[in-house]
Amino acid sequence: MPADLLIGGTLGGWALGHVDPADVAQVVTDDPTLARAAGTRGLPVRTTYDYAPSARGLSVHYQRILPATVIGRYAGLWNLHPGLLPWGRGMYPVFWALWEGSPAGATLHELVEALDSGAIVEQIEVRVRSRDTGGSLHRRVQAAEKALFDAYWPRIVAGEALTATPQPDSPGSFHTRAEFHALKDGGAPGRAADLDRCLTFP
Q: What is the C-alpha separation between 95 and 101, in angstroms, rounded?
């Protein structure tokens, strides 16, 4: 049964080019470039929340927080997240893992109203190396996300039940966009070299 694909960013673009169009009921995105690419592939595109969902959907770096009214329309909705939940909730989890020395990885989880809080289907931990930059860690985390996509998108389309486990009873970490920009723009006295390394992307 075709499933909805909610996409944003470079990984969303990769997913769009990676799937069989016959497996996609519709593409949901607010990115004009991705919307055009989906249209070129002959896929229905939705740019607002006024749409009838399929039974199932997968969010791949979709840029907006879905309201409960949209989530509730789905029988099953999952999210691919570039953090090892409960570590890395919120924005820029790869940056924060490198900056704080917290766990890094990729998580496929049930998408619920509370941000990045849904039960975990599967995770892949990515070891943080002492010489990592933001870019090098990001590449390995994204490779882990692609592996999860390849493993689970066919199962979502096939209508298989995906077993999920509630997230550990741990505060993990959570960061906002404002926190990131405050650190990025304000600098980090005594850790300027570390900050540059964390912000270094190709």
A: 10
